[in-house]
Known about the structure:
The chain is an alpha+beta fold. The protein contains 7 helices and 11 strands. The model has no long low-confidence stretch (mean pLDDT about 90).
Amino acid sequence: MERKSIDVAIQEAGSLIYLADSKFGGLDPGEFHNFFGGAPGLKELTLQGSVMAGSLYQDDGYSVRILFGDLSEQEMEEWTSKISWKIDASSGRIALSGVCDEDLEEYMSDWTTAEDQGSYHLGTYIEVPPTVYSVTIYSYPPGDLAGGWMRIEDRLLFRQCFGKDSGLEFEKPIDYFKRTRPNETPRHWHLEGWEDKPFLSFLIHFTPDSAKAEHPEFEPDGCLAWEYRKPERCPVGIELPLID
């Protein structure tokens, strides 16, 4: 499959990243917020392929790469969190956002189709050929808001945010970098924990083959459960051009 990608920025999000077919499985978008926080229904919407949601540990905006085709070597190597399932995009239009309050339907009326290097306040639409897609959302450091990188660099903070142990081997980023990339120069964020340059936060990978989607695991709130890993080599981050 020919590789096609679009990079976008979502300026504001509500501690979520989600995809939803524009019809929301027949649900009124203004009612979507009622399905979060442990209320019943989100699992059912997810299992039928209408919604795919992952919770985040804070509400910062994020950068997203929408990808059709194969991942690059770096994209495959450096992710630290991911969720996988499917989206029934029979409408040919998928909403991408992190906002789900009672005014969502009003917000959506102003959303436009995602374009490369586009910056969107609360959300955007991804235009796709109508079909069912297997979808994986990968999250990358240094801005991995799903928590995978936090599990590696700050075990205590992860426990405080998520209420459980990290399950991965803790290692200071600079030690991790020097151990696995001994002949390379570390990035500023390996030393200071932050970076002024923009980096990719999420990659959404679409594959038109629902047979590859395995039955998902869920968090108690109905969101999909993130899978975490510590890459063999310390990630360096996928640097992006600045999106205005």
